[in-house]
Amino acid sequence: MDHSIPSLRAGERHLDVMAPVRIETVVDIDRAPPDVFNYVTAPTLWHTWHPATSSVSAVPDRPIRLGETVREDIRVGLKRFATTWEVVECSAPQSWAISTDSGEGVALIRYDIQPRGEGCRFTRVMEFRSRYFPWKALDTWLMKWILTRNSRRALDQLKRVMER
Fold first, then answer.
1. Cα atoms found within 13 Å of the Cα of residue 76, Cβ hemisphere only
2. Which domain holds residue 38?
3. How far is residue 128's CA from residue 111's CA, in Å, rounded to a whole number?
4. Domain for residue 1, yes or no?
5. How far, in Å, are 65, 71, 84 from residue 25 at the CA level?
6. Quick check: is 2 in a domain?
7. CA distance 163 to 42
8. In total, how many domains does the chain have?
9. Rounded to an integer, what distance in angstroms lies between the CA atom of residue 81 and that of residue 54?
10. What is the pLDDT of residues 97-149, one digit of tens each?
11. Bridge-partner residues for 85, per DSSP?
């Protein structure tokens, strides 16, 4: 199944002819899939495990559902910006996806949670493409490198938090 959103497909008006950058990160967590799903889909908890989240606003204190939005203040390397994410897929406790089309660019983040023994395998896939130079030119190497490290740190921290 194609989980990309139209604005992230190569050739669409938002991205010109460059394909989005894709980062996939996986971690096994010794917690039941519903526990992990409810934790990672609650934006008020993102700051406890994801290093890029400075703060969130305009969101309930619970997991957000299909069609709901959250405003996130993000810091990645030297870049600081705010964006509004919308939940574009929600199939608890297996999968969840959010997308944004901000002034900075477009992005899709997808979570997949599969049972594994007593716990689960958590997969986070991020696809993104910056809209303007110099960031657009840096997406495929510098931003990918920074975001790959950030994603690994995030999932390692999520595992620590969930397994306490």
1. 23
2. 19-162
3. 15
4. no
5. 23, 23, 23
6. no
7. 17
8. 1
9. 10
10. 999 998 778 999 999 999 999 999 999 999 999 887 777 777 788 889 989 99
11. 70
CB 33 within 8 A of CB 113: yes
Residue 12 within a domain = no
Average pLDDT, the chain: 88
Tokens of 95: 């999968």
> How many C-alpha atoms does 152 have within 13 Å on its Cβ side?
5
Measured CA to CA, the distance from residue 44 to residue 103 in angstroms comes to: 23
Structure tokens at 104: 């900075």
Strands 95-101 and 53-57: unpaired
* Distance, C-alpha 7 to centroid of its chain: 16
Is 7 contained in some domain? no
Q: What is the CATH number of the domain that holds 114?
A: 3.30.530.20
